[in-house]
Amino acid sequence: MSQTAHIRSHRKPRRSASKIAMRAGVAGGVLSTLAVAGASGTATAAEPVTQTLELPTLTADLTAEAAISAEATASAAATYELQAERDAAAERAADLAERNLKKAKAEAEAKQEAEEKAAREAAERASRDSARETLTTASASSSASTAVSGSAAAVVAFAKAQVGDAYVSGATGPNAWDCSGLVQAAYKQAGVSLPRVSQDQSVAGTQVSLSNLLPGDILYWGGAGSAYHVAIYVGGGQFVGAQNSGTGVVQASLDYDPPSGAVRVL
Fold this sequence. Notes:
CATH class of the domain at 81-266: Alpha Beta
CATH superfamily of the domain at 81-266: endopeptidase domain like (from Nostoc punctiforme)
Oligomer: single chain
Number of helices: 5
CATH architecture of the domain at 81-266: Alpha-Beta Complex
């Protein structure tokens, strides 16, 4: 026995049997758990579970076919684009041709219309010149003739007396007249009953040439039987007529408004 054995603080404490047994059990459990875990880990490591995806292998043939397909696609796209450009160009050309055709037709029609208009105007000028020449000849002949007498004188005198009166459509005097109303009233002074309207008055007697007029003859404008205006020739290349609402009854030269024809009643 050591010298310090009798000192209480230097003695090793005794462990109880229960504590030792408990610690031994815990240690054993831990070792068992570790052993099972190790065995499980070893089994898992020995047999790993994997999933493999097999990818197609690009052989030389597949690579060539892919290249050919891509080239064909590019060629087709180029062909379609070229065809689209050709179609667009053809459409533009057709549209331009149509516009040019319409323009040419319009110009041709305008030219034809202008030529026809020029021809009509030339014919009208020639007709007026001929009428003026005829009336000038008639005026000279009338001026050289003897003074108006008899029934024609009464017609002429009445017509001249109405110069300055108003023109009113359908009027028959005494201060307003239309063209046929004045002619009818003038001939009534000579005891001659004429039809009321200008169409009938233009065929009421014998047709005479404008180069052979005598005072008292009825002048008409338009066709015989379809005249739209009448007046009275008073000699000296002059006529008296109810012209329109703007001028009323006037005495004017035959050149002022050349008539179409004449009829002699007296």
